[in-house]
C-alpha cells in the first residue's frame, strides 16, 4: 500500500506526498467505525431468534412462535411491535444524533465526535449486556444509536479528509467493506452464543463493546484533520499536520487549496438554505433518493431478520443461524468485487446489473414462498426447496453488495460541490437511517400482512430504482469532484438546472455518458 510519488488532487493537479502510516491508521479507525455499524446490523436478528431472549423479554412472541405450527400463519409468528422496536429504535436515535454530530464535528473537530460516538456506544453495549428488562434493552439500543450517529457522521469525513485524493474512492468502499465484516462477525458470534446453555444473548450484545473500545482508544490517540484545524483557525497546526500525514515538508499546494476551499465554504453561511436553491436540485434529489432506494431494495430484511426469515421458512434453529452466516460471508466477498471494478466499469453498470439480478431473485423467492405457503401461510418447505430459497437469497445479497450497498454511500458523497457537500452528506445519512428504521420497524408486520407479496413489493421498488438510475443517474467514475458540475450540465434532464457560470470555461469538455 506504500505508494510513493505524487498524489493526484483530483483536478489534474499533482500534490506532493505519499501514503504514510498516519493515513493507514486513519483507515483502520474508519474501519472500526464501520465494524460498529455492521455489528449492530447483524447482531439483533440472531438475538431476537434466541428462545431464552424471547422468553425473558418478549414472552408473548415466544408463546406465539411455539404454538404457530399448524394453527397460525407462518407469516405472522414473529409479529410484535416491541420486538421490532428493539431492532429499529437504534436507527431513529442515530438519525437524530447525526444532526447534533454534524454541529459537533464542525465546531469541535472530527476527533471529538468520534470519541463521543465510541464512549456512548460503549455505555450502550454495557447496558445491553446487563439488561434486566425491556427498558434497559431499549435505552441501551438508543445509546448505541447515538454512538452510530456520531460515528457515521464523523468517521467518513475524517477519512476523506486524511486520505490522499487518489485513494478517496477505494477508502469510501473500504468503510462499507468494514460494515459487511462487522455484520459477518455478528452472525458468527450469534451462531456461537446460540450454542450456550444460558446467557448467549448477553454475550452477543455485550461483545459490541469490543469494537467500541478499539474505536474510542483510536479516536483519543488520533490527531484531527488539517481541514478541521484550518476551519477552527489553527493554521500553523494544520500545516504541520499536513506535512506529517503526507510525509513531506513540501505541502504548499495542497495547503493553499485547503485554505481556499475552507474560505469558499465559510462564505456559505447557511448550507441548508443554499442546498434548496434550484441550481442544486439534481444533487438534492439524488441525495434523497439514493439512500431511500438503498433501503427499499429490502436488504435489511435479510441483514436484520435472516435467522427469523429462515426459521419462517422452516429451517431448524441452528440451520437458521448458519444460513445467516452464509449470507454474511457472501456479503463480504461480493463487496470486494465492487472495490475491484467500480473505477474500471463505473457506477452505472454495477447499479443496473445489480438491480436486474436482485429483481430476478426477489421474483424467484416470492414465487417459491407462494407455492409452499400460499396465502394461508400453512405449509412446510422441503429441504431442497429451502436450499433453493437460500441460494436465491445469497445471489440477491451478492448483487446488493456490489451495487446499492457501496454505491449508496459512495455516489451521494461524490456529487456535491464543496459548498453544500456536508449538508448533502447529512441528508444522505439521515434519510438512510430513517428508512432503515422504517423497514426495521415494519418488516415483521409487512410479512404478516403482505405475505409472499412482500418480495414482489421490494421487487417493484428495485425495478423502479433501476429505471431511475438508467435515466437519471449520470456516470461519475473518474470525474474529479470539482468538475462534477460538467456531468450535470451535460445530462439530458438535469442540464437545465445548472447555470452556465457554474461550469468553468477554463475546463476541457468532458465526455461522460448519460
Ligand atoms: C446499508 C445497510 C445494510 C448494509 C448491508 C449498507 O450499505 O446502509 O443498511 O445493512 O449495507 O451490507
How would you describe the overall organization of this protein?
The structure is a single chain. By secondary structure, the protein is an all-alpha fold. It has a single domain (21-224, 268-503), classed as MFS general substrate transporter like domains (Growth Hormone, Chain: A). Helix content is 74%, strand content 1%. β1 and β2 (14-15) form a beta hairpin. α1 (21-47) packs parallel to α7 (168-193), α14 packs antiparallel against α19 (404-414) and α19 (404-414) packs antiparallel against α20 (418-450). Beta-D-glucopyranose is lined by residues 41, 176, 179-180, 183, 294, 299-300, 303, 331, 405, 408-409, 432, 436.
Query: Could you give the order of the helices and strands?
Result: EEHHHHHHHHHHHHHHHHHHHHHH
Quick one: CATH superfamily? Answer: MFS general substrate transporter like domains
Number of domains: 1
Q: Report the sheet with the most strands, covering strand number, pairing sense and barrel closure.
A: 2 strands, antiparallel
- CATH class designation: Mainly Alpha
Number of strands: 2
Summarize the structure.
Residues 26-477 form the Major facilitator superfamily (MFS) profile domain. With 514 residues, this protein is an all-alpha fold.
Topology:
Elements: E1 7-8, E2 14-15, H1 21-47, H2 51-57, H3 59-67, H4 81-108, H5 110-129, H6 134-162, H7 168-193, H8 200-206, H9 209-221, H10 226-231, H11 235-246, H12 252-267, H13 271-274, H14 281-296, H15 299-312, H16 317-345, H17 347-373, H18 383-402, H19 404-414, H20 418-450, H21 453-472, H22 484-490
Antiparallel strand pairs: 1-2
Helix pairs in contact: 1-6, 1-7, 1-9, 1-15, 2-3, 4-5, 4-6, 4-20, 5-6, 5-8, 5-9, 7-8, 7-16, 7-19, 14-19, 14-20, 15-16, 16-17, 16-18, 17-18, 17-21, 18-19, 19-20
GO molecular function: monosaccharide transmembrane transporter activity; symporter activity
Membrane topology: Multi-pass membrane protein
Transmembrane segments: 19-39, 82-100, 112-132, 171-189, 201-222, 284-308, 320-342, 349-373, 385-405, 426-446, 452-473
Amino acid at each position: 500500500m506504500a505508494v510513493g510519488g505524487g498524489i493526484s488532487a483530483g483536478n489534474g493537479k499533482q500534490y506532493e506526498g505519499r501514503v504514510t502510516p498516519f493515513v493507514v491508521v486513519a483507515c483502520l479507525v474508519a474501519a472500526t467505525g464501520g465494524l460498529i455499524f455492521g455489528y449492530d446490523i447483524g447482531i439483533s436478528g440472531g438475538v431476537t431468534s434466541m428462545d431464552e431472549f424471547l422468553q425473558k423479554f418478549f414472552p408473548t412472541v415466544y408463546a406465539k412462535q411455539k404454538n404457530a405450527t399448524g394453527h397460525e400463519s407462518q407469516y405472522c409468528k414473529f409479529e410484535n411491535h416491541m420486538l421490532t422496536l428493539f431492532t429499529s429504535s437504534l436507527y431513529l436515535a442515530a438519525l437524530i444524533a447525526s444532526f447534533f454530530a454534524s454541529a459537533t464535528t464542525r465546531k469541535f473537530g472530527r476527533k471529538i465526535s468520534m470519541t463521543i460516538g465510541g464512549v456512548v456506544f460503549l455505555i450502550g453495549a454495557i447496558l445491553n449486556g446487563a439488561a434486566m428488562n425491556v427498558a434497559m434493552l431499549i435505552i441501551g439500543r438508543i445509546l448505541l444509536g447515538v454512538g452510530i450517529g456520531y460515528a457515521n457522521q464523523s468517521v467518513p469525513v475524517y477519512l476523506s479528509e486524511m486520505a490522499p485524493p487518489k485513494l478517496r474512492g477505494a477508502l469510501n468502499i473500504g468503510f462499507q467493506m468494514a460494515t459487511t465484516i462487522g455484520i459477518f462477525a455478528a452472525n458468527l458470534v450469534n451462531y456461537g452464543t446460540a450454542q450456550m446453555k444460558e446467557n448467549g444473548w448477553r454475550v452477543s450484545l455485550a461483545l459490541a463493546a469490543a469494537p467500541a473500545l478499539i474505536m474510542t482508544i483510536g479516536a483519543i490517540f488520533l490527531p484531527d484533520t488539517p481541514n478541521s484545524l484550518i476551519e477552527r483557525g489553527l493554521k500553523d497546526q494544520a500545516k504541520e499536520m499536513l506535512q506529517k500525514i503526507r510525509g513531506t515538508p513540501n505541502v504548499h499546494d495542497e495547503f493553499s487549496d485547503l485554505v481556499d476551499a475552507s474560505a469558499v465554504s465559510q462564505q456559505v453561511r447557511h448550507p441548508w438554505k443554499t442546498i434548496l436553491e434550484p441550481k442544486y436540485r439534481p444533487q438534492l434529489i439524488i441525495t434523497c433518493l439514493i439512500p431511500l432506494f438503498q433501503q427499499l431494495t429490502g436488504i435489511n430484511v435479510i441483514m436484520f431478520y435472516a435467522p427469523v426469515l429462515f426459521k419462517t421458512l422452516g429451517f431448524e434453529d441452528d440451520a437458521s443461524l448458519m444460513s445467516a452466516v452464509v449470507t454474511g460471508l457472501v456479503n463480504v466477498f461480493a463487496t470486494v468485487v465492487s472495490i475491484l471494478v467500480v473505477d474500471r466499469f463505473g457506477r452505472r453498470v454495477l447499479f443496473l446489473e445489480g438491480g436486474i439480478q436482485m429483481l430476478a431473485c426477489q421474483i424467484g423467492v416470492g414465487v417459491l414462498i407462494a407455492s409452499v405457503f400460499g396465502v394461508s401461510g400453512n405449509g412446510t418447505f422441503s429441504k431442497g426447496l429451502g436450499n433453493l430459497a437460500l441460494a436465491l437469497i445469497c445471489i440477491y445479497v451478492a448483487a446488493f453488495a456490489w451495487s446499492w450497498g457501496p454505491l449508496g454511500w459512495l455516489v451521494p458523497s461524490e456529487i456535491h460541490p464543496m459548498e453544500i457537500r456536508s449538508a448533502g452528506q447529512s441528508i444522505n445519512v439521515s434519510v438512510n437511517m430513517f428508512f432503515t428504521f422504517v423497514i426495521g420497524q415494519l418488516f415483521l408486520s409487512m410479512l404478516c400482512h403482505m405475505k409472499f407479496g412482500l418480495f414482489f413489493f421490494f421487487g417493484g421498488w428495485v425495478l423502479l430504482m433501476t429505471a431511475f438510475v438508467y435515466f437519471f443517474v449520470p456516470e461519475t467514475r473518474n470525474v474529479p469532484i470539482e468538475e462534477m458540475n460538467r456531468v450535470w450540465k451535460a445530462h439530458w434532464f438535469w442540464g437545465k438546472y445548472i447555470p452556465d457560470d457554474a461550469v468553468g470555461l477554463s475546463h476541457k469538455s468532458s465526455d461522460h455518458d448519460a
